[in-house]
From TrEMBL:
<dbReference type="InterPro" id="IPR027477">
    <property type="entry name" value="Succ_DH/fumarate_Rdtase_cat_sf"/>
</dbReference>
<dbReference type="InterPro" id="IPR036188">
    <property type="entry name" value="FAD/NAD-bd_sf"/>
</dbReference>
<feature type="domain" description="FAD-dependent oxidoreductase 2 FAD-binding">
    <location>
        <begin position="23"/>
        <end position="469"/>
    </location>
</feature>
<dbReference type="Pfam" id="PF00890">
    <property type="entry name" value="FAD_binding_2"/>
</dbReference>
<protein>
    <submittedName>
        <fullName>FAD-dependent oxidoreductase</fullName>
    </submittedName>
</protein>
<dbReference type="InterPro" id="IPR003953">
    <property type="entry name" value="FAD-dep_OxRdtase_2_FAD-bd"/>
</dbReference>
<keyword id="KW-0274">FAD</keyword>
<keyword id="KW-0285">Flavoprotein</keyword>
<dbReference type="InterPro" id="IPR050315">
    <property type="entry name" value="FAD-oxidoreductase_2"/>
</dbReference>
<keyword id="KW-0560">Oxidoreductase</keyword>
Length: 490
């Protein structure tokens, strides 16, 4: 077995031969990498992408394809919704904290419309139609959907609700491989190739190369097991994804995700973060994680979610990622969905993109008292919860957690419980601290010369919270900034 390459930076003086060379070298051919490549090439730079796998796409090509955009995009307007950068910022600051980077969110919100137009210019298609039903993603080719709980409590009181989940259009819509994320990546890669961007595949980046001034001037990688040196005449852009599949880093920074990684590809091993750390790079929000809750939202909105004590804890009509965080972080990963037969049948018959997430009931009873006993809950715990909920649901209101009235109905009989304990998984949101131009910052606060980064290896617009589309959104947005800034270097 080959010896592992040291993570410490390699002095350029020790590089005898440069195997590859370009003005801008991009590590990773996912959403951040392709966006950086397009903009660097447009700025006149010769661009080389180093991709670990045998083809482009990364986690983005397997994602649902949501790009979190707003502020009044043409798609929002075409679907009849008003939005502004200021309104978008109110929501993002509330939903993506605590500790959300206000400067970066302000920048992102004010640049959101232009970024949408850039995607369209690159050939990404969007259909001017809105999907209004609960779900992980639209089941058809609709282009707009609520993707972060904007229309649910408490956020619908903080900012005027506006859907910001922009989804590329595709025929024969499907979830997973060659889904919405593929329809985002494909035109961007084609745009990059038309601009002359080159790619080398099966390249595992190992460490950075620096000159005698400390400037980053290249990358050491392994291709088919052989070490190669890649020279970057202007700059290096790191875009290799999160550290969700690096067990050691998960244990150190985000232990709540131990044993439950949810990144789309296992290549998310944090290597770029470690490479930059070896140069003294600063980090931010390394404990922040997205947490998916793997139950179909069409069922969840029609019942009530209770914890291991039989108590409600989250509005069931909010973003499933928020439900996941509330369950894993605050309820010891204990959750049950209480739902009556009529509501379950209605939810099971509703249109969804994720029918495989429709969980079968574990317990069924004629009364809540019987169900409570079968579940092993303390006598009266679940009964009191349902009694309070039903009392107000008779009037179509939920004063406790403020679920929207359209989903508030008394729970009848027979009644069932879905066992959702442990139904969470996720990926990391923290990473390298960067400037608005995607320069990687040293712990001193100064940019590391020649080094840029974007995507999930950085700390982007998310801190404590998440909304679907923010990874592809800030990955592409700040990927562009990285490519432009790197191409400007001399």
């Amino acid at each position: 077995m080959a010896e592992p390459t040291p993570i410490r930076p390699r002095p350029a003086s020790e590089v005898a031969t440069w195997d590859y060379e370009a003005d801008v070298v991009v590590a990773g051919y996912g959403i951040a990498g392709v966006s950086a490549s397009v903009e660097a090439a447009r700025a006149g730079a010769e661009v080389l992408v180093l991709e670990r796998t045998s083809g482009w796409g990364g986690a983005a090509s397997l994602a649902g394809g949501f790009i979190y955009l707003g502020g009044g995009t043409p798609l929002q307007k075409a679907c009849g919704f008003e939005d502004s950068p200021e309104n978008m910022k109110k929501f993002m600051m509330a939903a993506l904290g605590p500790g959300a980077d206000e400067e970066k969110i302000t920048d992102y919100c004010h640049g959101s419309v232009e970024h949408y137009n850039w995607l369209v210019e690159c050939g990404v298609p969007f259909k001017a139609s809105f999907w209004s039903e609960p779900g992980w993603e639209p089941p058809f080719d609709d282009g707009l959907m609520y993707s972060g709980g904007e229309n649910a409590a408490p956020f619908n009181e903080i900012a005027t609700p506006a859907p910001r989940g922009h989804v590329p259009q595709m025929d024969g819509k499907r979830t997973g491989e060659k889904g919405g994320g593929y329809m985002l990546m494909k035109p961007l890669v084609e745009a990059a190739e038309k601009l002359g961007v080159r790619a080398e595949y099966d390249m595992r980046v190992q460490t950075l190369i620096t000159d005698d001034t400390g400037r980053v001037v290249g990358i050491i990688a392994k291709q088919y097991g052989k070490e190669v040196a890649v020279r970057a005449r202007r700059g290096v852009v790191l875009a290799t994804g999160s550290f969700a599949y690096n067990d050691k880093m998960i244990q150190a920074y985000a232990p709540r995700l131990i044993g439950r990684p949810g990144a789309a590809i296992e290549e998310h091993d944090g290597r770029s973060i470690l490479m930059a750390q070896a140069l003294g790079a600063d980090l931010a929000h390394m404990d922040a994680t997205e947490v998916a809750f793997v139950c179909d939202p069409q069922l969840m909105v029609r019942g009530i979610l209770v914890n291991g004590r039989g108590q409600r804890y989250v509005p069931e009509d909010t973003y499933s990622g928020r439900i996941g965080q509330m369950t894993l972080f605050h309820q010891d990963n204990q959750a049950f969905l209480i739902i009556d037969e009529a509501a379950y049948d209605e939810g099971a018959a509703a249109t969804t993109a994720t029918p495989f997430l429709r969980v079968q009931p574990k317990w069924v009873a004629e009364t809540v008292e019987e169900l409570e006993s079968d579940m092993g809950l303390p006598a009266g715990a679940l009964q009191s919860t349902v009694e309070v909920y039903n009392k107000h649901a008779a009037d179509g209101v939920d004063p406790l957690l403020h679920k929207k009235s359209e989903w508030v109905k008394p729970i009848g009989s027979p009644v069932a419980a879905l066992d959702l304990r442990g139904f969470t998984l996720g990926f990391t949101l923290g990473g390298l601290r960067t400037t608005l131009d995607s320069e990687v910052l040293h712990v001193s606060g100064e940019p590391i010369p020649g080094l840029f980064a974007a995507g999930r290896c950085t700390s982007g617009v998310c801190a404590g919270g998440y909304a679907s589309g923010t990874s592809l959104g800030d990955g592409s947005f700040y990927g562009r900034r990285a490519g432009i800034a790197a191409a400007k270097q001399t």
